[in-house]
Amino acid sequence: MGSGPEPGRRRKAQAPVPGYMKGRVGMQMKNKQIRVTLMLFIKIGLAILIGALALYNNSHSNSKKPTKAVETRIADGDTAVVTRIVDGDTIVVACRVDGDTIQEKVRFIGVDAPESVHPDASRNTALGKMASDFTKKHLLNKVIRIEFDVSKRDQYGRLLAYVWSGDTMFNEFLVEHGYAKVATFPPNVKYVERFTSAQKRAREANKGLWGHEVEGVALEPPPVKSPGGGTTSRYIGNVNSKVFHRKTCDKLPALANRTYYATRKEAISAGNKACGRCTP
Ligand SMILES: [Zn+2]
Fold this sequence. Notes:
By secondary structure, this protein is α+β, with helices and mostly antiparallel strands. The chain contains six helices and twelve strands. Among the domains are: about 80-210, CATH 2.40.50.90; about 220-280, DNA Methylphosphotriester Repair Domain (3-Layer(aba) Sandwich), CATH 3.40.10.10.
C-alpha cells in the first residue's frame, strides 16, 4: 500500500547530496528542518484552535443576552426606581440586587398604548405622546413594585410585568384613563378581566383614545375660538391639506398645523374635506 512511494521520495531527497558523510549530515539537517517546520505548524494550529475557541465562547455568551431565555435578577415583588419613560407602556427601571444596580426595560403586560416613539413616524400619534406624558407624570423617578406573570420576557428581551405604584396597578390605571387598550398575549393573562372591565368603563366615559375629553389633561392647546363662534372644538383641521378629523383619529396633523372646529358644518364651510380614516 504505502510501500511504493515512500522509498522513492527518500531516494529523491538523497539524490542531490554527493558524499556519504555529507549525505548523512544533509539528512540530519533536513530532518531537523522538517521537525522545526512541523513544530511551527503544530504551534500555529494550536494558536488558531485556541483563538477560535475563545471567539466561540465570547460570541456564545454575548448572544445569550438578548434572548428571552435569560433569567432576570429582579425577583417577583421587588421594588425598583423608574429611571426613564420609553413610551406610554414601556419604562426603564433600576433595581438594587445584592449590591448591584440592575437596569431593565419593562413592558407593561396586557395593555397597549398608542405609539409615540415608533421608528416609523407615521405611527406616532398625539395620543401616543399623551400616553407617554401620562406615564411620565405618574411614574418617572417613582418607586414601583414589579409583579411577573408566566413569561418574564418578550421577543425583544424586555421584561414583562405588572407595575404597582402603592395599591394601584399602573397597567390597569392606563386603561382606566383611556391611554391604552387591552392587549392580551397568553400565557400572561392573570388580570385580563380587570383590564377588560377598566376598558369598558373608559370607553363608556369617552376617556382618552375612546373619546374627546381626558381627565385633567387637555387634548390640544386651549381651544381657540372657532370661526363659527363655538367654544368647544370637536374636530381638528389640517391647515395645509384642508382635511378635518375627529380628535381621536390616528392621522392628526402636527400641532403647528392644526385648526379647531366645533361642528362638521364649520369645518366644511371653511373648505375642509372629511378624513377618510376617521370619517368625521
Ligand atoms: Zn382622520
